[in-house]
Design brief:
Shape: globular
Helix content: 25-40%
Radius of gyration: 19 Å
Strand content: 15-25%
Oligomer: single chain
Largest sheet: 7 strands, antiparallel
Strand order of the largest sheet: 3-8-7-6-5-9-4
């Protein structure tokens, strides 16, 4: 019992430190984090080639090794006993992000080059009808289809708040409306919210991240990388080194590495700029 109490105190103390780059192993096990792609407790993915030398906090509460875990400085102290990456539901963006995590299954398959548009229309219609996300080999996702559904989830709430009409939202289900065009073809979530008077946006170069609390949890974000590739995501948090330097971005999206819906982090050094959009 005394050992358990000491371990709990030790965990709480270590989780309160202002750094996510710490290694913790239970005294009962000399654990070592995997060298390759690591699945984190909240389904984040970090590739050691992207984050060389990053120390991961490991947990062993049950006597067997559990997934490694990395912490965001913004999350420290909110759930110290478990050291879970947190979602700040006291903010509108955090509440929205938590709803995304709750309403979308993990995985479900990733398809970009062979994306099945007719099947996605089925997913959209079912999502609007029941809130259920179709998950099968036929109903796979890509990044813009995921953020499109995440936007529709928010849009359904805005209908209840009388900021949108049900007719407007239902018209988007055929993918011919402005939402799909702006998110998928133009990759401009900022324009989407601005044109519908639902929010505002901002473009940030790599060295400007973060600026005035941008990006923030729950923002719709278009990432443009230095290699000219892009990614449409719902932003979660930044990863920072012990000296406060931003080293990575974490987000929810449909990713190849998560085989569809899931959370992932990527190194900031690969990012050229972000286009962030925030609901009012």
């Amino acid at each position: 019992m005394k050992i358990f109490l000491l371990l709990t105190i030790y965990l709480i103390f270590n989780c309160s430190l202002a750094s996510e780059q710490l290694l913790f192993c239970s005294p009962s096990q000399n654990c070592a984090c995997p060298e390759k792609t690591m699945e984190l407790k909240a389904n984040y993915y970090l590739d050691q080639e992207d984050f060389p030398g990053t120390l991961i906090r490991c947990h062993d509460f049950s006597g067997s090794f559990q997934n490694p875990l990395i912490l965001s400085p913004a999350c420290l102290g909110n759930s110290p006993a478990a050291c879970d990456p947190c979602v700040d539901t006291s903010t509108p963006g955090g509440k929205y992000y938590s709803q995304v995590l709750k309403n979308f299954p993990k995985g479900c398959g990733y398809a970009w080059k062979k994306f099945n548009t007719p099947a996605f229309k089925e997913t959209v219609k079912e999502f609007l009808k029941s809130g259920k996300v179709l998950c099968s080999k036929r109903h796979q996702s890509m990044c813009t289809s995921a953020t499109f559904l995440a936007f529709l989830m928010k849009a359904k709430e805005l209908v209840k708040e009388r900021k949108l009409t049900l007719e407007q939202v239902e018209q988007w289900a055929d993918l011919k409306g402005p939402v799909w065009t702006i998110l998928n073809a133009q990759a401009r979530p900022d324009l989407l919210l601005q044109e519908m008077n639902l929010g505002e946006g901002r473009t940030l170069r790599q060295k400007e991240i973060p600026t005035d609390n941008w990006p923030g949890q729950g923002d719709l974000v278009q990432i443009w990388r230095k290699d000219r590739s892009g990614h449409s995501v719902v932003f979660s948090n930044l990863l920072k080194s012990p000296d406060g330097k931003v080293v990575g971005l974490c987000y929810w999206a449909s990713n190849k590495s998560t085989n569809g819906y899931g959370e992932k982090c990527e190194p900031i050094e690969k990012v050229d700029r972000l286009i962030a959009a925030r609901f009012k």
